[in-house]
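HUMAN: Forgive my ignorance: could you write out one protein's sequence and backbone structure tokens?

ASSISTANT:
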Amino acid sequence: MIYILPYEIVGGHIIVSSSNGNLLIDTGAPSSVGYDNTVSFAGRNHFVKKDFMGVSPKSLSGYIGTRINALIGADILNQYDMVISPHLRQLLVSDEEQHVDGEQLELDEFMGVPIFKASVDENTIRMFFDTGARLSYLHPNIAQTYPRIGTEQDFYPSIGRFKTETYRVPIALGGETVELVVGILPQLLRTTLMMANTSGILGTAILSDYLVGFAPRRKKLILQRLKKELPNGMEAKRYPGAPQPARLPGNVHAETGMTSVSDNPFIDLVRKASSLNWCMKPYCTTCGAMDFRSALQEVGGKLGGPLADALADVNLDELTSMPNWEDAIQIAVRDLPLPGQATALFESWLERAHQNLRFFDVVLYKLIRYLPEDHSVRVEWIVRGVYLAIQTCDFSLVESLILTLRKNALQYDQLMALAKRFAKESRQMHRVLRNACNIEIDLAQPWH
């Protein structure tokens, strides 16, 4: 089973909010610690210490500046495969193997802490992979040969806070090269590096440019460069920030037992569900739409890639002509198992969603509006939606935009003018403006 754990970056540290409180995810700590004797992580209870070599939740809370209830260290993390997705700020954790496309680095370890090989100026070095480190570090003999850029303050629980000069250093990680700001550790901590025959530490700054797959049981560290933009075409359907699964086997269509008009497994499945009267209500409290959901899982496989591809390829006119398509699309998108699949799908759809106004309207209202307000995909859909609403004067789309934007709709003068015009004749739009934007419309005449 795959556990998706949302996280926040606090002072450069990965913090997961859980039933046990705030968990610091730290591959660089050999032992986990917590206020309680056990901590729940990824479906299992793990025994933890109250203190390890001066590291405790209390000391960590003081240094990081937020309450830390437990540190999840290498002794726990090494039991799982973990994908760190900066795109959605989520950890994907499973005791099953997770396969990620990208640059693969072989892992060694010292006291359970992962070590990989890197290259600086064509010289091979060994570095710790430490998600508990805000800064990356290199031996001074290496770092000081590169441009100095400033001074940073960091901490280590056993010695407290310290200042370090920082340098900008290009580091080759397999076939990838990344320019990192690195510091120099105090002498006491450099001794630890020497004991492990290492010359540096790779910290969380790597998440600015890469999704990271951490597979300690297979001794693999995988780096997948984040795409700032999705290209057009096939690549647009491959979700950023997630493992890339195999394609759908060729026998899937035959298994539905249905004639395929579209040659699209999702369309075939919706057609089958309709013919068999399967429930497709997204929040059904009676059956949970389990027949339809189970069939979706069969199409998508464990990682959901074939289903994501089928959704990206769907013929919009054919889909919107089918019974219960709105419910079907909601379940399918929300059941995609991996971070980034849904948002990549939304980006793919945006290129052509304007061709079918009902599809655009439903996706905006049922799915897009639940993305964070500052999410780039949500912003792009809203900008395109406002343009379409003004061009088409479509009542339903205007209503969806007002309910999505709420008071932010006041920033769009033409959209608001259109909504006010509708409200003079529509009780429904009048209510929407009042509830979403706190606007009352003076009526020239009563509704009929």
In short: The longest strand covers residues 160-173. The two ends are 56 Å apart (CA to CA). The chain has a mean pLDDT of 85.
